[in-house]
Amino acid sequence: MWIMTKWGFYSIVEKQHGLYAVRARERGDLVRLLGQAQIDVPIQNTPQNDYQFRAHVDKEELGQIMMTLASSVDYPNFKAEIDRQPDQARKPYHEVWSILARAFRPLYADELTVPPEEEPGVPQFEQREVFDESVEEGELGEDGGT
User: Could you give the domains of the chain?
Assistant: First the structure.
């Protein structure tokens, strides 16, 4: 599971039955999350892996992390909140949002276009002002896709 929060970006997977790896690419992200959740487990540094930093937690601790994350939502707009976080603002959250908006575009588009120069079978979507957040209310949800 990928989770983007105001404290960082995380990947959570079950490594063994009941044992979960909470992984991050930056140590500070994992330190913040574990601190906020009041979980004291070691953070492993694994530079050879995709996610260099990881902490192993049991199911109860994972639940504590998830409750902490749910309680941290105290903002009306995630992208604006990220911009206010000095340690997160430089990360590509806006780019991820834009990619996902394009990927789900067929759900909202009138038509799908595939330029002939693109690889067959890989749809390309006609871009509109949706991606500069000038979306009319209701087009990508009541919150304008934020």
Answer: 2-75 (3.30.70), 92-132 (no CATH)
